[in-house]
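haha ok so turns out i had the wrong file open the whole time. this is the CORRECT one, sorry everyone. sequence first:
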Amino acid sequence: MASLSIRQVVKRYGKGPKANAVIHGVSAEIGDGEFIVIVGPSGCGKSTLLRMVAGLEEISEGEIAIGARVVNEVEPAERDIAMVFQNYALYPHMSVYQNMAYGLKIARVAKAEIDARVRKAAAILQLEALLERRPQQLSGGQRQRVAMGRAIVRQPQVFLFDEPLSNLDAKLRAQTRLEISKLHAELGVTSLFVTHDQVEAMTLAQRMVVMNAGRVEQIGTPEAVYARPASAFVAGFIGSPPMNLVEGEAAAGGFAVGGQTLALPVAAPRPGRLLLGVRPEHCVVGGAGAGWPLRVELVEMLGAERLVHGRLGDAAFTARIDSGQAAPHPGATVALQVAAQNLHWFDPADGRRVGP
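then structure:
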């Protein structure tokens, strides 16, 4: 196992004034044995960054170190990493055992050692009964476990996961997330996991790196990123449903939105134009006393909860209530209460957090 350092890494395609930069000075320090998730929307550069760590993409500037060794010029096969891809990339004519053993065979590892490693990995991933099957005889979840087993037998310093759950259905994704968490708890290998799914990021990560347009927006534990997003982008990306972001004018203990002034439980951190952020689950709908008037447009039933969609002034807004609570009718106006500690403020110009 080893730590992983990403230091001011830049990626450009092309040269000269027409060069297209897709990664803009990304830095991250990943501790020995840590499980880090890189999360962001499609096209934000997360897979490109992972491929630079793997050695599949050249680094335009900066450096990447695995342990104490800078690997910028090191061939992928010599970096002591193992990668699990979005597609399973299994050899269709080989059995599960042969797929898992193939890399070790090419590396001229002794047959007894290969057998021991393959059977240990198969036991960890509950594949013992499938070792003689071919990939076409397996489900999607089983194939992904074989791909992970092929990585495990390498006994690398670092695991790289490139959206490995994207091809699975919802039930299998949840099951495989659990298996990956158990796998990391057992092996303790430094891991870098890329996904566009913020639910995967929140459930798997010890720390997460939120990326947007080739830049790091925030690095922190899932709890810290959720509770105190560093930017409006993070606030709107992390959380399901996402945080409400309402632009308005703050002054004298109120917040003006579309000709309507909302009373604040605590004054905004500064007067002037601001983005107010409130998570749907932090709203109390129809509580006693005055509150923000939400004009209800739609109520969605989601099993244990309901989402109440409406408008505050001219701004779209969503609140979440328990399914046991009486749902307001579309067209009604209900009062919303939000505690002071659940208000988030952002600068509308650059999106960065304002205040504590």
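The chain has a mean pLDDT of 92.
again sry for the mixup
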